[in-house]
Amino acid sequence: MALGTGYQNQDCSIARSLEVVGERWTLLxxxxxxxxxxxxxxxxxxxxxxPAVLTQRLNxxxxxxxxxxxxxxxxxxxxxxTPKGEELWPVLSGLAQWGNEHYVKPEERQILxxxxxxxxxxxxxLCARCKIVPAxxxxxxxxxxxxxxxxxxxxxxxxxxxxxxxxxxxx
Length: 171
Hints:
This protein has seven helices and five strands. With 171 residues, it is of the alpha+beta class. It has a three-stranded antiparallel beta sheet, with no helix packed on it.
């Protein structure tokens, strides 16, 4: 018997949430949008997903009002998080911090700082100086030490420079 892929029969808020964001690639797509990627091709290159799967996941996120399809440059649409999608920031931040702590080498860890004061956020996303957990728009993604050392400009890193979350990356 094949393993089911849905949670329809589960009466649980986590299961209901996983119906929307729990498929493979979906959280990586959302993460790319937080990091400022808006173009389909940039998202695809960053995470290595097939075109069919990326299209399917983006369409579902648009249906669920997590992502909005917006006019882009030329004839190509772009994607951005809706307010509902932005509410996923604490979830992604927590998952990233947990992964940093348990699975990522220190030199490869993503460093996030509070835009207002420049303080590095702790494992819970807290700014120790301001005593708050900043919203995604108030978080700056710092270049990882490994990106600075290699000084490579790629779709993934877009060069070793700080970048405010949700701010569109320049092509």
